[in-house]
Design a protein that fits this description.
155 residues; alpha+beta; 5 helices; Beta Polymerase, domain 2
């Protein structure tokens, strides 16, 4: 029985010794994590600049950028913009998707392209909503994401 206890003790000792890192390893891991986070932020920034440039080229109207860092876990930025008509909304969305693919972004997800009332383009770090003006006024996403949290009131 004592031999089994020694085996358990030695197993526990080896697991503990591997899980407790020396201080130098902990700082190296932290700095590599910080470097990865910084790289992700610059990638999101480059993607955002490319998107804003494409929207400007395509004459998108009333473009608003909403910074979601710290507010949301699914994306860093949200861009809300308008096209003048269904055809313009579709052209903006297709041009933007082409630009994202050319810049090397994979797994772009597009919703709403057949109707072109509201097209959502999800590139991962940046989400773009392209609306017709009437649809944008109805849903008013800017107010939803820029308004601070409010306390619930009892009726």
């Amino acid at each position: 029985m004592s031999a089994i206890q020694r085996k358990e003790w030695s197993l526990a000792t080896s697991v503990l010794s591997k899980s407790v890192l020396p201080k130098s390893d902990r700082t190296a891991r932290k700095t590599s994590t910080q470097a990865a986070a910084l790289k992700a932020q610059t990638d999101a920034g480059k993607t955002l600049n490319m998107i804003l440039s494409r929207l400007d080229d395509m004459k998108a109207e009333e473009t608003v950028t909403i910074d979601l860092r710290g507010k949301s876990a699914f994306s860093d930025y949200m861009v809300v913009t308008s096209g003048r008509a269904n055809r313009h909304v579709g052209a903006i969305a297709e041009n933007l998707a082409k630009g994202l693919k050319e810049s090397g972004i994979k797994n772009i997800h597009i919703e709403g392209l057949p109707n072109c009332d509201w097209v959502l383009i999800d590139s991962g770090d940046v989400i773009v909503h392209v609306f017709r003006p009437e649809v944008r006024a109805f849903y008013n996403l800017e107010r939803l994401w820029t308004q601070g949290p409010t306390a619930a009131t009892a009726i």
